[in-house]
Amino acid sequence: MFTKGAVFDFPPEFIDPEVFLRTGEGRSLYHLEVDGEVIMSPVFMTDLEVRESIVDDILAATMWEIQTSNKLDFDFSNLTSFVKLSTKERIHRQLHHPEIIGLISIVDGQLRIKKDSVILQAAMDYCGCWYNGYVIPDESIVINRIAVSNFSSEKALSELVTSIAMDLQATQPVNKSITN
Q1: DSSP labels for the chain?
Q2: Which domain holds residue 20?
Q3: By CB count within 10 A, which of 25, 57, 121, 156 is most buried?
Q4: How far is residue 114's CA from residue 150's CA, in Å, rounded to a whole number?
């Protein structure tokens, strides 16, 4: 059972395993259509992005178990429950790709990231999603999703992304003495 006051990296309602499994919120492997237009789908992802998404979603299930000390039924059907049937074969192929298979444990069909701290850290570094107690590499860019959601316009968000891209491409170090 989850210990009150312990670290839980998920929305509070996700403490319920049924809510965690049936909610697409926070999943990387997700197909979303609005008014018949595909907004998000593995169809638009490169093979690398599909592998990163696989690791991200399996990592979420693994960390949920670690943080709640409860078992979760997370197999291939759970991994692909929010995607179209036409993409499941591609996801299955990428699940067994040599680049990520060493991070994953598959026992009786259950998918988990191996529960070794070094492998958990490697999985987080691979997919770009870090949980409490693990190190975010210095070269990573961390953006607070709550702060980003407060942008008043798409233009402001676009300007932030452009600014970050320019910083990444800069050949000169950033002057840290300038403050606003």
Answers
A1: -PPTTS---S-GGGGSHHHHHH--TT-SS--EEETTEEEE-GGGS-HHHHHHHHHHHHHHHHHHHHHHT-----BHHHHTTTS-HHHHHHHHHHHT-HHHHTTEEEETTEEEE-S-HHHHHHHHHHHT---TTSPPPTT-----HHHHHT-SSHHHHHHHHHHHHHHHH-SS---TT---
A2: 12-136
A3: 57
A4: 36
For the record, the structure tokens of 124 come out as: 């987080």
In a domain, 111, yes or no: yes
Rounded Cα gap, residues 54 and 29, in angstroms: 7
Domain count, the chain: 1
Angle at 85 between CA 82 and CA 87, to 5 degrees: 85
pLDDT given for residue 179 in this prediction? 43
The answer on pLDDT for 160 being more than 60 is yes
Instruction: Answer whether residue 177 is part of any domain.
Output: no
pLDDT tens digits, 86-102:
999 999 999 999 999 99
Closest CA to 7 of 95, 68, 50: 68
Is 1 inside any structural domain?
A: no
Query: What is the distance in angstroms between the CA of the first residue and the CA of the last residue of the chain?
Result: 47
